[in-house]
Design goal:
globular; 23% strand; eight-stranded parallel beta sheet; binds NADP nicotinamide-adenine-dinucleotide phosphate; single chain; 13 helices; alpha/beta
Length: 348
């Protein structure tokens, strides 16, 4: 069994913990917690061992929490750390714990790949560079938008290759996650330099990609409007299903009216954490005109990166062939089954 410590128990960390605790190849050492709040109680209810910063130990214990040790103890007891810290804290964790103790780590998409606070050279996208991250020590799992874009673009590249001239993507991003207590601001905010463009280009270096990003007051997923410009007329194909029917974690839907429809249905279906763990192409909005194809898809912001972390883990630790890793991840997340249910519900 591989000993895994999950450092950070926020929206992403708690999802990784619940999925990884069901994998019999993994021994969950525990989770790292930094504040006393209802998430801490949740971790105990789920019987996860909890580790805290050394200087906070006394405080947590005095308040009656049965803390298993310090963050440093947990890192020491692990074979690999899944860092799910607030944006930017992964860097100090790497410097203070992972490097001194010689431990490998997976970082999340809010960490840097360049500059002073760089944590790793590679950003993982299972559809594109799963094999390249095999046996690496430090890798970043691409963020939700970056994971979604890779999942949509790679099949297009494989089918149409150099017939495609450029991609323009408008990311319409949710302001907060379902569980966030922060206020959802009544504003549409732009991003003068979205990191997503360079993140995607790190694993698809030769594409002409231009990304704009806007945050809107919603908690229900991201929506991507992708415009694909061909050198000539858009090649003939009937439906998006022709391109995506065998793709892991891509559903083709026709009847959803908005992102909330899908999230609400995921909840009604009883999907864990209300996650679909995938992207959903909204077929009925597809437009073809001369050299231009427009597609719209929604991206489960919190859910999509959790199976991606599981795949990345399998490549880094076992160097397992990709098809076997997909099978294993599917057996834990039930993504094929969820996709079937959603396609039946929202199908044409
Ligand atoms: N939310 C999404 O939809 C999403 C999707 C893809 C990727 N990501 C990326 O995933 C990462 C985590 O995001 P999140 O949404 O889970 O954030 P979050 O809900 O704000 O949780 C961050 C967690 O980091 C913990 N923390 C604080 N200091 C830490 C440290 N030094 N080391 C480790 N953990 C520390 C916090 O602990 P306490 O609560 O105990 O203070 C909190 O539980 C970010 O890089 C983000 O960009 C997020």
């Amino acid at each position: 069994m591989v000993r895994v410590f999950i450092n950070g128990y926020g929206n992403i960390g708690r999802r990784i913990a619940s999925a990884f605790s069901h994998d019999e190849e993994i021994q969950l050492v525990g989770i790292g917690k930094y504040s006393i709040d209802e998430r801490l109680d949740e971790a105990f209810t789920k019987k996860f061992k909890v580790y805290v910063p050394e200087q906070e130990m006394e405080d947590f214990r005095q308040k009656g929490y049965d803390i298993s040790g310090t963050i440093s103890d947990a890192v020491k007891a692990s074979d690999i750390v899944i860092d799910a810290a607030k944006d930017g804290f992964g860097y100090s964790n790497k410097k203070n714990f992972y490097i001194p103790m010689g431990k490998g780590a997976i970082f999340q998409g809010g960490e840097d790949r360049a500059g002073e606070k760089k944590v790793a050279d590679l950003i993982h996208n299972s559809r594109i560079n799963y094999d390249k991250v095999a046996n690496q020590k430090y890798v970043i799992q691409g963020s939700c938008n970056v994971s979604g874009m890779g999942r949509i673009m790679q099949p297009l590249i494989e089918k149409f290759g150099d017939k495609i001239q450029r991609y323009d993507v408008t990311l319409i991003r949710r302001s907060a996650d379902l569980e966030d207590t922060k206020e959802v601001k009544d504003s549409i905010e732009w991003d003068k330099n979205p990191h997503h463009q360079e993140d995607v280009k790190s694993f698809l270096p030769s594409v002409n990609l231009y990304v704009e990003a806007y945050k809107v007051p919603s908690r229900m997923m991201h929506l991507h409007q992708m415009t694909i410009r061909f050198k000539d007329k858009v090649p003939y194909f009937d439906s998006m299903s022709e391109i995506y029917h065998d793709e892991f974690g891509v559903a083709v839907l026709a009847k959803a009216k908005g992102t909330a429809d899908i999230r609400t249905k995921a909840r009604e279906f009883g999907f864990k954490h209300d996650d679909t763990n995938m992207v959903h192409i909204h077929e009925e909005t597809m437009r073809k005109s001369d050299d231009t194809l427009k597609i719209l898809y929604s991206d489960d912001q919190t859910g999509i990166v959790i199976p991606e972390n599981h795949l990345l883990f399998q490549s880094m630790i076992f160097g397992r062939p990709k098809s076997k890793a997909y099978k294993r991840t599917d057996s834990i997340f039930q993504i094929s089954k969820k996709r079937e249910m959603l396609e039946k519900e929202f199908g044409a």
